[in-house]
Design brief:
alpha/beta, eight-stranded mixed sheet, binds uracil
Length: about 210
């Protein structure tokens, strides 16, 4: 299935992604399987979010002869993980792009107010010269995602994409209003957010399901 594109939002509807996502949603799925599936889906999403990266020809010698062969152009990519659940996607992204630089952004949402609280930010230099792909499995209220991207832009990032596993329509709308220049890639857009800010039907708390916490 080809990706479905809304305004600035790509829903990557590959059958393998949809199948794996169904297993992740199931509350009986083990922590080990949940983590492995997230990593596998990250591979497939990474393929899509990097589909249009620019190439340049570089000279190499094969065992047979010299040739000009395509290689990724420009400075290394940055994957920016919104802690902690972002790390589940990050691992899979790094499997495919091992030379990428990594930013860690520590933001949690206050369970009362649902507002983002930042406690950590560490990013590579020269963000202005790099494509930054921000990863977080759940685009729910979009509070953390918009705050993370505010911060990356303050530090100079000007080419940013956002990659998640599941999004709520409310989160997509809020995110697109806050950052219309940042394309969103997701495996699915679910029905709605509940009063506690959880995506419905969703898969529960991604961080808890990855790390076995409550
Ligand atoms: N974060 C999660 O982990 N799950 C949700 O449903 C919403 C935000």
């Amino acid at each position: 299935m080809a990706p479905v594109s809304l305004e600035g939002v790509t829903v990557v509807q590959h059958p393998l992604i949809q199948h794996k996502l169904t297993i992740m949603r199931d509350k009986e799925t083990s922590i080990a399987s949940f983590r492995r599936l997230l990593r596998e889906i990250a591979h497939l999403l990474c393929y899509e979010v990097t589909r249009d990266l620019e190439l340049e020809n570089i000279p190499i010698d094969t065992p047979m002869q010299a040739m000009e062969a395509p290689a990724l152009k420009g400075k290394k990519l940055v994957f920016a993980s919104i802690l902690r659940a972002g790390n589940g996607l990050l691992e899979g992204m790094l499997d495919l792009v091992p030379a990428a630089r990594v930013a860690h952004i520590g933001i949690y949402r206050d369970h009362e107010t649902l507002e983002p609280v930042e406690y950590y930010f560490k990013a590579p230099s020269n963000l202005e010269d790099r494509l930054v792909i921000v990863v977080d499995p759940m685009l729910a209220t979009a509070n953390s995602a918009t705050a993370a991207i505010d911060k990356l832009k303050e530090r100079g990032a000007n080419r940013i994409r956002f990659l998640c596993l599941l999004a709520a329509p409310e989160g997509v709308e809020r995110f697109r209003n806050a950052h219309p220049d940042v394309p969103v890639f997701t495996a699915a857009i679910d029905s709605h957010l509940n009063e506690k800010g959880y995506i419905v039907p969703g898969l529960g708390d991604a961080g808890d399901r990855m790390y076995g916490t409550k």
